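Q: Got a minute? One more chain.
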Amino acid sequence: MQLEELLAPLALWRTTGDVKTEITGIEIDSRKVKPGDLFICLPGFTVDGHDFAEKAVLQGAVAILAQRSVEADVPVIYVPDTRRAMAVLGDRFFGQPTHRMKVIGVTGTNGKTTTTHLIERILGEAGHPTGIIGTIEMRIADEVREVKNTTPEALDLHRAFRWMKDKGAEYAAIEVSSHALDMGRVRGVRFTTGVFTNLTQDHLDYHKTMENYLQAKGLLFSQLGNEYDRERMKYAILNIDDPASETFARITPAQVITYGIQGEADVRARDISITARGTKLKLETFAGSVDLTLRMIGNFNVYNVLAATAACLIEGISLDTIKRTLEQVEGVRGRFERVDAGQDYTVIVDYAHTPDSLENVLKTVREFAEGKVYCIVGCGGDRDRTKRPIMATIAARYADIAVITSDNPRSEEPQAIIDDMVEGLVANGIDKDQYFTQVDRREAIRETIHRAGPKDVVLIAGKGHETYQILKDKTIHFDDKEEAHQAILEKKK
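A: Always. Here it is, folded:
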């Protein structure tokens, strides 16, 4: 594609060179630039792409897109905002793939990953090839690509949609983070449906206030478009039990479909029964009612099931197909995942890393636990410090023994993070015999499992599917599930 043609949708730009140059690719990482590429300079929190323009040219870039002055021996196109322009150019270069497939975006503090995976499974079972993008992976059929962020940058996102479309995808189910919405990563994505799970405290290191966090989430629903196309209707699927849904219903022009457990909703669960092996409920919808026997456990998973059901019903998927699929699903990696090596106690790995998600998981554990409950929990470094004492207090209140340890300390001292958590325990009058601290996460898992007796439950919270730990300037391999399995085998010996 000629650079001049690529730039056509942009209203404001100027150049220092010839825009009739042929562009064969677009990159925002100078290390990935190939001959014929347009390199886009993005300002970042720690590095600035403008500083790598010269390197990009040496790599073969034939043009540069910038928002401030750079030195380069190729045409430089100047725009007011390279991040905003990137979304426009990415959508155009990759042929507007979301105009030729249906995109279902899921946003909320908790439940995004499970909900998108359930949607993908149901649509796939109904014969609709569906791609998925989120915290764990980017995938279409059996082809998997790694992701750095829950929601990739706009350029990478449009590239991914084009890849999925070329592989035959009819749908894409995508996790939409508040960071992505606030930073414009989903600009240009033509969403068919927006799904809201819940809103609880998280990411206040970035958003500063819950009001800002709410507004960021709301962008998904306000961006659903203002037209009514009978061939491509837009829907907002909202959790009626969460007060934030009132705001989202107000700001979206899309048709609103509600789901919930407590209030009257278009898709609702009744007669919920939770055991150590699964969950039973009556699913009532605008398309009929069925009884479900799920392998997944907990009310939080019931909400995920309701959200996925609503999203698939409006796509014309039968209730029978939805029921058949949901009853087969055992869960999602790192989400309330059992670690079983034949032991007489239960070990569960879960991604719970917010106060609300930790409380929900521990409440679920309490519903079936016959023995003691142990909760291993930490908090990430360089992130919202205000939730540290809250997380520790929730762990101590719902578990018999809280084990305070490291998560991803990043640049902070692990002990300092633990001290912040323990302050919450002291302030709330938690007895010292209700918790202990262990800086080394591996040792924390090992010691807790060695303490566990018959019928006890050990919950390892915070990292879930993650297979790494970030320690200052290095990232090491660390998998809670692997560590727990090894500790169980050691105990058996």
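A: The chain has a mean pLDDT of 94.
Q: Perfect, thanks.
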